[in-house]
Design goal:
Its EC number is 3.1.3.25. Keywords: Hydrolase, Magnesium, Metal-binding. It is an enzyme of class 3 (hydrolase). A hairpin with a 2-residue loop joins β9 and β10. The strands form three sheets. An eight-stranded mixed β-sheet has the order 4-3-5-6-7-8-9-10, sandwiched between helices. Strands 12-11-13-15-14 form a five-stranded mixed β-sheet, with helices on both faces. Helices cover 36% and strands 26% of the residues. It has seven helices and 15 strands. The chain is α+β, with helices and mostly antiparallel strands and 266 residues long. The protein folds into two domains: 140 residues, Fructose-1,6-Bisphosphatase, Chain A, domain 1 (2-Layer Sandwich); 110 residues, D-Maltodextrin-Binding Protein, domain 2, CATH 3.40.190.
Amino acid sequence: MTDPLLSELLDLALEAARRAGALLRDGRPADLGVAATKSSPIDVVTEMDIRAEKLITGYLSEHRPADGFLGEEGASAEGSSGIRWVIDPLDGTVNYLYGLPTWSVSIAAERDGERVVGVVEAPMRRETFHAVLGRGAYGNGETLHCRPTAPLDQSLVATGFNYVTEVRTHQAAVAQQLIPRLRDIRRGGSAAIELCDVAAGRLDGYYERGLHPWDVAAGDLIAREAGALTGGRPGRPADGDLTVAATPGVFEPLQALLEELGAWHD
């Protein structure tokens, strides 16, 4: 049965993501610079990250003032409705700073702690991905399905690297051992887009250490609704230690190999 609340949340998320995407695409200053740093001097925030988050939270609050928020750039509110929005206003900030096209706006809605709506807007790719729990995943209105299962050694897998030197050094060592056991590795720079690419059948799998809830909330739901499996270390959900998403036949061998290689620790 159709849940009117979920339809309302999806419509709001789609519009908020569209508006934020347009702001980021059309409002990017020619002299865009770093406004602040986070975990390290190379983990950056631009003025546009902040503006996009304010646009999203302002729009959603106007329509649903009792909802809570968790945003990468500081938006935080408990709310009283049982709905919480998890927002990454600009996933792929370094790409955006350098003028590369792989960046996105990611908005998810949780109901009583469960992710029920996810939207990822990728303006430079002219793509909008969305999913509602139990209703499938879509890209530009077309139904998404992850790829048919391939052997692990014939799988294309994406990953990402942390901005803390010690962490990324270990991640590079893991990738070095992983590459000979796969078809190849990709590194796009936006976790939300990588998860959507798993959903769209463009990747067989994706993994990364050190992600936050706003990085994966929308993309994880989209990948699962497209038929992919997601999780963290064996027997655990995706968390800051490890996030893994892959086609059903690739998920377990990839997860086991990442456990063996110690991808979950520094």
